[in-house]
């Protein structure tokens, strides 16, 4: 057994002590955390220090990695005992990160393939989180069997977020991972799924399959795959299958559009990096507003917000229409060699921020129309007028993207910031047009 596996095993065992909170009492849990913190402070060298130390701990001979991890766990424990965070979420989060890391280290003994290690983390973490939540629910007298699909959804969502954060952060940043996962699962636990128990499990299976397919087809990096899987899973469970279809249409068509005449785009210097595989920043830049709309819809449906859920639906579809329009406009329009700057209409080199072509603009309009057609076919609230609103929002957002590209991108904003503001513009235009038509009608 290698040192990383032994260290991960010890950390996983320490994480199991979080069960002291539901098994005994919060006071016992606090006492256990205090003992671990004291030990981490006292141990400054020797075999045990070597077993528990992160590389950065050797400089000051302090187990800072363990100390910050325990402090993060204590912070979540306080939320579970002094606030409304379910104790099951607290225990599930701690076990997820601890045992997920152990699973990843065990997989590393067999292969160095990054995607396999991520799968090992997600599977082990999900199983550990399900077990932790189930045991905790049983100890505190809550329903177990009927809540199992929701428990699996929370565990899988937390595992995807944890794997994503671990991919973009350092291994010593596990305290950040713990807090982020705990807060996400707390939020999700307060919202009501819009689909039934069986559909939740089906959604999880389909989402994972689609995510891995995007990675296998090289339309997404590992981080991009994890981000997309998490976004699609949350959208499906909190919004429904109609929302899923709209979001996946963008990921599928947008991802494939990066392969359109890819060799030519490479020669022109306008092709996406990594053979067209989109990373987490690109996915979030295009879909973060859509996720906010989904969470707003779920919160409105659960009574936490007073606005009509329909408004969030149109904000969601408007943002996706913008993302689809902008992606198709860029990926298709970039292969034509006479773009013009949108602000001056002067000819510019291919790939210039803010450069547009009539072919790209036409492709963008078609992209918005695709999203509008899907939405009109799946949501009775949309109809012909709603479809026209979504198309208008997509075109408006695409135009905002080009304007920001010509004026602020590179000096004030990065590409992902431009994408975010453009999709936000599309969402706002869509929602405002719905309100305007409702007032006039």
Automatic annotation (TrEMBL):
InterPro entries listed in its UniProt record: DUF92_TMEM19
Pfam families: DUF92
Keyword Zinc: no
Membrane topology: Multi-pass membrane protein
Alphabetized UniProt keyword annotations: Membrane, Transmembrane, Transmembrane helix
Ranges that cross the membrane: 30-51, 63-79, 85-102, 114-131, 143-164, 176-194, 200-217, 229-253, 283-299, 356-375, 382-400, 420-440
Protein name (database record): DUF92 domain-containing protein
């Amino acid at each position: 057994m290698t040192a990383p596996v032994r260290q991960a095993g010890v950390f996983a065992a320490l994480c199991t002590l979080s069960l002291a909170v539901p098994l005994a009492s919060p006071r016992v849990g606090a006492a256990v955390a205090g003992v671990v913190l004291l030990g981490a402070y006292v141990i400054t060298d020797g075999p045990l220090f070597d077993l528990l130390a992160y590389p950065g701990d050797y400089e000051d001979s302090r187990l800072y990695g363990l100390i910050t991890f325990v402090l993060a766990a204590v912070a979540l424990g306080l939320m579970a005992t002094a606030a409304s965070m379910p104790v099951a979420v607290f225990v599930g989060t701690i076990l997820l990160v601890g045992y997920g890391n152990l699973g990843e280290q065990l997989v590393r003994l067999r292969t160095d393939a990054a995607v396999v290690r991520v799968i090992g983390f997600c599977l082990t973490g999900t199983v550990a989180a399900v077990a932790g939540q189930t045991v905790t629910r049983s100890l505190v007298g809550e329903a177990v069997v009927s809540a199992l699909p929701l428990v699996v959804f929370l565990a899988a969502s937390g595992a995807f977020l944890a794997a994503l954060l671990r991919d973009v952060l350092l291994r010593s940043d596990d305290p950040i991972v713990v807090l982020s996962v705990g807060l996400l699962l707390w939020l999700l636990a307060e919202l009501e799924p819009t689909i039934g128990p069986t559909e939740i499990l089906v959604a999880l299976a389909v989402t994972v399959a689609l995510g891995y397919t995007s990675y296998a087809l090289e339309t997404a990096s590992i981080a991009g795959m994890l981000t997309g899987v998490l976004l699609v899973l949350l959208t499906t469970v909190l919004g429904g299958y109609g929302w899923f279809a709209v979001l996946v249409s963008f990921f599928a068509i947008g991802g494939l559009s990066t392969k359109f005449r890819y060799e030519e785009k490479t020669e022109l210097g306008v092709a996406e990096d990594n053979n067209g595989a989109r990373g987490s920043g690109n996915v979030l830049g295009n879909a973060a507003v859509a996720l906010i709309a989904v969470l707003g819809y779920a919160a409105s449906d659960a009574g936490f917000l007073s606005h009509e859920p329909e408004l969030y639906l149109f904000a969601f579809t408007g943002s996706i229409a913008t993302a689809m329009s902008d992606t198709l406009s860029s990926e298709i329009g970039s292969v034509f060699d006479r773009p013009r700057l949108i602000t001056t209409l002067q000819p510019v080199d291919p790939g210039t921020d803010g450069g547009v072509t009539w072919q790209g603009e036409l492709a963008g309009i078609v992209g918005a129309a695709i999203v509008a057609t899907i939405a009109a076919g799946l949501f009775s609230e949309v109809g012909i007028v709603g479809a026209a609103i979504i198309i208008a929002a997509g075109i408006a957002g695409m135009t905002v993207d080009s304007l920001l590209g010509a004026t602020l991108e590179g000096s004030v904003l990065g590409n992902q910031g431009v994408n975010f503001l453009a999709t936000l513009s599309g969402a706002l235009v869509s929602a405002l047009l719905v309100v305007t038509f409702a007032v006039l009608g």
